[in-house]
């Protein structure tokens, strides 16, 4: 028996997103930077030389997300101590062959709370993803509404 896939219209969620909303989020990403000079240089057609390197520490990975949040229309909410309300987990270095070359990805899963600060940019992030390696399963930002228990 084959599993049947169900798809749902995403427009209903996108239409509900407004500035000021707070959401729980999860993101599996490839937090990386382009190094200016490195032994393993990467040549591009535009003449720029550099190598993409993954951030390896949890603090580097968290800073990568914080640095990109505003351009994607959100800000990371802070905890009661003024720290970003994000957990960085499932940190891995993955290597595999593709077209005869070895591909190395450093991945991390981020879970936390955010606030929408620009509706259009945030909707774009939901539809287009964040960061590199989207073709390898990275970049998908998922959100869930804030819930409050009656005990609070």
From TrEMBL:
Cross-referenced Gene3D superfamilies, in alphabetical order?
Crispr-associated protein, domain 2 (3.30.70.1210)
The signal sequence is: none
User: Matching Pfam families, A to Z?
Assistant: CRISPR_assoc
Q: Which InterPro entries match?
A: CRISPR-assoc_prot_Cse3 (IPR010179)
Q: What is this protein called?
A: Type I-E CRISPR-associated protein Cas6/Cse3/CasE
Origin species, per record, is Bifidobacterium adolescentis
């Amino acid at each position: 028996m084959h599993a049947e896939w169900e798809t749902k219209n995403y427009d209903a969620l996108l239409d509900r997103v407004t500035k000021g909303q707070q959401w729980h989020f999860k993101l599996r990403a490839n937090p990386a930077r382009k190094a200016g000079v490195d032994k393993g240089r990467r040549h591009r057609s535009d003449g720029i030389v550099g190598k993409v390197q993954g951030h390896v520490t949890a603090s580097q990975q968290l800073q990568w997300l914080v640095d990109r949040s505003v351009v994607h229309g959100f800000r990371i909410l802070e905890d009661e101590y003024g720290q970003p309300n994000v957990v960085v987990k499932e940190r891995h270095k993955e290597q595999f062959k593709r077209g005869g070359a070895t591909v190395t990805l450093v991945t991390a899963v981020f879970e936390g709370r955010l606030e929408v600060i620009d509706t259009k940019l945030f909707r774009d992030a939901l539809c287009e993803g964040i960061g590199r390696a989207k073709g390898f399963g990275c970049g998908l930002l998922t959100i869930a509404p804030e819930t409050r228990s009656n005990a609070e």
